[in-house]
């Protein structure tokens, strides 16, 4: 049976989409260790469950509530992911999308709030965005259900070839660190994507770090950090990784969206 995780930034329309895609709604209690309600619903169109996760801006948790999402990625088995994205806040939202795509599970993106983006004079070519991101993108209006059936169809069609891992280049120092960490991880019996793990460890994600706990890896990360401090303008690996993603995101947005005349005239 299909297990679909619903992931996105706060206030992007997750609950609206959840209500639209699920018929019966099962209340399962709270996620362990936090007061956040765990919601799992039966998908209407497919034989499967939809799991609503707390809204987060990153897989690097800044609170116990946000840890729910990271722990879910580390410990739960699931089939695929719906990543709901706020079209009017693409730059911020895609920071999470990259980390989700790096995980390597099939992903369909629900591009929500297109009405808000359009009103602000931003037009997004969803097909081009899908091509640049390497994963299906479906424009939706979660509030009234528009496009949500198409999203369900795309979800149903997802398989292991649907989503490509985005090739964000993190610079030679970090990339060399990734290779060394992947080599160390080969000896551990961990059934998680190695490049994703290496990046989360280099970012200093506290949940992933205590999940793996390996002194050899800690030594590699220290070395990477020293090299970055000595040879770049960065003082942390975390910031360098964030900015590498930002550069990639800026290019994707530039290539797949345009400002309308209306927005230009707003400024004159
Ligand atoms: P969540 O916090 O991610 O679960 O998001 P919600 O489903 O609670 O939605 C947050 C707010 O955005 C609510 O006020 C919704 O009515 C609104 N909303 C959801 N989808 C859309 C949309 O496509 N367009 C607009 N303009 N508002 C939306
Ligand atoms: K948001
Ligand atoms: Mg919600």
UniProtKB/TrEMBL annotation:
Residues 1-161 form the FeoB-type G domain. Keywords: Cell membrane, GTP-binding, Ion transport, Iron, Iron transport, Membrane, Nucleotide-binding, Transmembrane, Transmembrane helix, Transport. The keyword DNA-binding does not apply. The keyword Secreted does not apply. It is found in: Cell membrane. It comes from the Bacteria. Belongs to the TRAFAC class TrmE-Era-EngA-EngB-Septin-like GTPase superfamily. FeoB GTPase (TC 9.A.8) family. Probable transporter of a GTP-driven Fe(2+) uptake system. This is Ferrous iron transport protein B. It comes from Heyndrickxia vini. The gene is feoB. The chain holds residues 1 to 268 of 666 of the full protein.
